[in-house]
Write a structure and sequence with these properties.
Length: 253
């Protein structure tokens, strides 16, 4: 297991929902006797934070603010001109899956692979998959991705980069592989909310990037979207995690 991945995620646990709201509630409990007014303020803030961030309409709006512009099917051939590869970023594994006999791709990764497979059929460009084992395990994200693409989608994979633990490392190690193959322009596949940061990392690594986003937040809100739900909290966490990642990249330059 990567120590940097573990440290980053431990910090994120306290900065992101529900950890941030629960942390304020815990402080309110600790200060309830010595500083009752402070405790009340902390408790109200923590409770309100959890309530607002658990609304699906809020979570969806936060994610939408992050999304890269969509690319419709009619634009794909034009976008692919001059490109030498399709690069797919890993989005997590389904560890120790009994029905598959071991580690395989998680839901978010599967969404990216589906779109990458479609792009490969449309353009004929070779595929590169990237993702390591930041949370441990024997099979890297990239290896699991290549297996699914080849065996289930019947899509060939030319490069497998299985040593990186985060988006920045994805970019650096992928760029090194592709430069050896003479590839400088790529179609980059990831979730729509993740692609702006990923594209920046790959550009800084020396590649010309064409963002190819997938899984947009769409749909007209219903009455249920204004009620607290786990899905709303999950979407808010995703968005705030990405904003935190962008801020960290800005600090590091």
């Amino acid at each position: 297991m990567s120590t940097s991945w573990l440290a980053t995620n431990l910090v994120a646990t306290f900065l992101l929902p529900p950890g941030n709201g629960l942390g304020l509630l815990l402080l309110a409990f600790l200060f309830r006797q010595r500083r009752p007014q402070l405790a009340m303020s902390l408790g109200l803030t923590g409770g309100l934070l959890l309530l607002v961030l658990s609304l699906p309409v809020v979570g969806r709006a936060l994610v939408q603010r992050l999304e890269a512009p969509p690319v419709v099917p009619e634009q794909v051939q034009e976008k692919a001109k001059g490109a030498g590869a399709i690069v797919v970023l890993g989005g997590g594994r389904y560890r120790e899956a009994p029905e598959y006999g071991g580690d395989t791709v998680g839901n978010e990764t599967l969404v990216r692979l589906r779109y990458a497979g479609q792009l490969q059929r449309q353009t004929g460009l070779p595929l590169l998959v990237t993702g390591g084992t930041p949370d441990g395990g024997e099979v890297s994200e990239a290896e699991a991705m290549a297996r699914v693409l080849r065996d289930e989608f019947r899509v060939p994979v030319r490069w497998v980069e299985g040593e990186s633990d985060n988006t920045r490392e994805n970019a650096l190690k992928t760029a090194a592989l592709l430069k050896e193959a003479g590839v400088s322009r790529v179609l980059l596949v990831s979730h729509a909310w993740h692609l702006p940061r990923a594209a920046l990392a790959f550009s800084r690594a020396g590649l010309e990037v064409v963002p190819m986003p997938t899984l947009f937040q769409r749909g007209v809100p219903t009455a249920l979207d204004y009620l607290p739900q786990a899905d709303g909290l999950r979407a808010s966490r995703t968005a705030l995690h990405e904003w935190l990642g962008r801020f960290w990249y800005w600090l590091r330059g």
